[in-house]
Automatic annotation (TrEMBL):
Keywords: Membrane, Signal, Transmembrane, Transmembrane helix. The chain crosses the membrane at residues 197-222. Residues 1-27 form the signal peptide. This is UPK3L protein. It comes from the Eukaryota. The lineage of its organism: Eukaryota, Metazoa, Chordata, Craniata, Vertebrata. GO terms for cellular component: membrane.
Amino acid sequence: HPHSHPRHPRARTMLPLLLLLLATAHGLEKLDYKPQLASPDLGGLKTISTFVLEQPRCHFKSYPNADIWLVVATSKAVPNFNNSVGPGTPERAFQRFPTNASAYMTLNTTFLNYPCTKPSGEITVLRVGSETSCAKDMARPTCNGPLPGPGPYRVKFLALEGSEPVAETYWSDAITLKTAQQPSSIPTTGSRHGPGMIALTTILSILFAILLAGLVAMLVFWGSDACGGSSTFTKPEAVSVRRYNTHHVYDQPAARL
Ligand SMILES: *[C@@H]1O[C@H](CO)[C@@H](O)[C@H](O)[C@H]1NC(C)=O
Ligand SMILES: *[C@@H]1O[C@H](CO)[C@@H](O)[C@H](O)[C@H]1NC(C)=O
Ligand SMILES: *[C@@H]1O[C@H](CO)[C@@H](O)[C@H](O)[C@H]1NC(C)=O
């Protein structure tokens, strides 16, 4: 008791001071939210060029006038990310990502679109990479275009008031997309075995064709010998009957050769 009493007032003055220091040092609030991929029961969660995120609902309620941007960065760009580089600049242009811009900013919206109450029945997700029309249009650097590769990418939401960053979420975990290169690894091994496989297949099909031709020829000879008609093909009993004449059949082609 004698210890706890003097501590309380001090803690009360220290905490806001500390927060103020932090706020002025960073210039923006770190929101306790990490962007999440949408629940996997939504079909086609990740494709080779898109992924689906949960909306950051309610988290920006203190910033009703801010523009909330989605930042998509390569994993490598995250440690040195500069929040002051504005959306729409060449360093944040989708068309230059990821070679000449390490991140891009897209899906500009406000808190109005990320309200706290979830309207029932409405799908409250964001599909990143869904806009194909502006993907090559340098005049639209904030395009939500198809992602240029499997990644890995990391995303966060950044709220700007004017050009001033005021709040941000944490970065998401690394997001790796499905890769179109995986099936192409089969052709590379396939090309190694390719010619051999093709030769083998060709030989086998030729052999099979010869065998089939021989069989047909045999059946024709057989048929003409045993019954003298094409009706042999329709009667299964006729086949078993003809088995007794095998010695005769072997004689036939030999005689012809
Ligand atoms: C971040 O970007 C702003 C605007 O381009 C620039 O003035 C500032 O120097 C950059 N900060 C760092 C640490 O690179
Ligand atoms: C990056 O910049 C170089 C040189 O300016 C250019 O040749 C290249 O096409 C650019 N790449 C992208 C993805 O914009
Ligand atoms: C972002 O969106 C807001 C409203 O939707 C708009 O007023 C603003 O001009 C947009 N900013 C940019 C850079 O596109």
